[in-house]
Amino acid sequence: MQETRPFVPWEQMNDFMVDAFKGYGVPEEDAKICADVLLESDRRGIESHGCNRFKPIYIDRIVKGTLLPVTNIEILKETPTTVVMDAHDGMGMVASYRMMEKLIEKAKTYGMAGGAIRNSTHYGIAGYWTSMASKEGMVGITGTNARPSIAPTFGVENMLGTNPLTFSLPTDEEFPFCLDCATSIVQRGRIEYYAREGKDTPKGTVISENGEALTNSSEILKALVDGTAALAPLGGIGDELAGYKGYGYATVVEILSAALSGGEFMKALTGVGQDGKPQMYHLGHFFFVVDPEAFMGREEFKKIAGDICRALRASKKAPGESRIYTAGEKEYDVWLFRKDKGVPVGEGVQKDLITVRDALGLNYKFSFE
Fold first, then answer.
1. Which of the residues 99, 191, 244, 287 has the least number of beta carbons within 10 Å of its own beta carbon?
2. Burial of 339 (0-12, 13-18, 19+ CB in 10 A)
3. pLDDT, the chain, mean
4. Torsion angle, CA of 240/244/249/250, rounded to 10 degrees?
C-alpha cells in the first residue's frame, strides 16, 4: 500500500479537531464524539467522510448557521424498545451517539430495539453507528436520508439522497462484517473528494438533465445543487443492469428515515429555501439493534458469521485475482497500515486545517508545513 501524502499523527489530529469544534461553540464532550466519528472514517480509508469533510460540511455550516453547535436533544416518544428523537438542527453525530447508547442498552434487555431521529444533520459514516452495536456483540442497522442527489429509474431529476443502508454483523474475527455504502453508484462525498483532489468523476455515474454523462467533479457538485444533474442509483441508468434495485433501496431508506421520525424528505432536504438562502437540512436517520443472545447466542452468531466470511474468502478466485474480500476487511487492512502512521492529508485538507487553525488562533504546527 503506497501513500505519498504526508501524515498527521492521530492524537494531534484528534486534539486539533476537538479544539476547533470547541472554538466554534461545540461543547467539549460533543466535540470529542464528532472528532472520533470523522477520524474513524480515515481509519477505515473512507476519506470522503473523514477530515476531508471537517471544514466544508461541519465548520462552514456552523459558521453559515445551517448547523447548530449545541445539540438540544428532545425525546418525542419512548417505549421499552423504541426511541424517537428531535435533534433540533444540532450535530447529527451527537444525536446519533446518544441514540445508539440508548438502543444498545434496550436491546440487551429486550433483544431488539429501534429508533429514529428527525431535524438532524449529517451524521458521518453510517458504519460508525452500526459498529457501536457490533463491538457489543450485536447486529447494528442504520440508514439516513440526505440532500436530493439520485434520480429515480427512467428519470433525470435528483429526488432521493445517496441514502446508505448499512449493517454491521459481529464475527469471531478481528473485525466485523460491515457493509456501509450508498444506494447510488458513487456518493456526493466521493465527488467532493474528487473535486478537492482535481480528479474527474467516473463516467456513467452522473447524468445531466438532458441524459448526458458528466465527469467534471466541480461542475457536477454545482449541477447537483441547482438540480441540473443527478446521480445514478446502484445498477446504473435504466433497468438493463437492474438500476431499479438501487432506486428501490434508496426509497426504502428515504421512507424509513422520514416516516419513522415524522420528519421531512426529498426536496425539503436541500439546505436551500425557496428564497435561495441557506436553511436547516432537517435530515432523518433510523437505527436498529439486534442482540443475538436473544436468539441462539452471541458466540454462536459470531462463529457462524465468521465461518460464512471465511468460506467466501476461500472460494475460487477469478483469473488474475489474488484475493477475495468480505465487507469490512479492506477497511481493517487500511487501519493496520495507518495506525502507527497517522492520517494522510492531501493539499486540500492541509489548506482547510491551516485556515481553521489561523481563524481560531490555535497553537498547532503540522508536519506538512
1. 244
2. exposed
3. 95
4. 110
For residue 8 the three cell numbers come to 498527521
- The answer for 216, left when phi > 0, alpha when psi is -120 to 50, beta otherwise, is beta
Alpha-carbon span 65 to 49, nearest angstrom: 21
The CA-CA-CA angle for residues 114, 117, 120, to 5°, reads 155
Crossing angle of helices 126-134 and 92-110, in 10° steps, is: 30
**Cell digits for 54?**
471537517
Lowest mean per-residue pLDDT among 268-272, 312-316, 326-330: 268-272
Q: What length does the chain have?
A: 369
C-alpha cell at 298: 452471541
- pLDDT greater than 70 at residue 318: yes
Interval 107-123: pLDDT, tens: 999 999 999 999 999 99
pTM of the model: 0.93
Write down the pLDDT at residue 1: 62
* Beta-strand relationship, 82-86 and 112-120: parallel
Give yes or no for a contact between 125 and 331, defined as CB atoms under 8 angstroms apart: no
Q: Which residue has the cell 468523476?
A: 201
Work out the burial of residue 114: count CB atoms within 10 Å of its CB; fewer than 13 is exposed, 13-18 middle, 19 or more buried: buried
Torsion of CA 254, 259, 261, 264, to 10 degrees: 60
DSSP string, 178-206: EE---SBSS-HHHHHHHHHHT-PPPTTSE
* pLDDT score at 334: 96
| Contact call for residues 74 and 66 (beta carbons, < 8 A) | no
240-280 pLDDT tens trace: 889 999 999 999 999 999 999 999 999 999 998 888 889 99
Name residue 224's amino acid: L
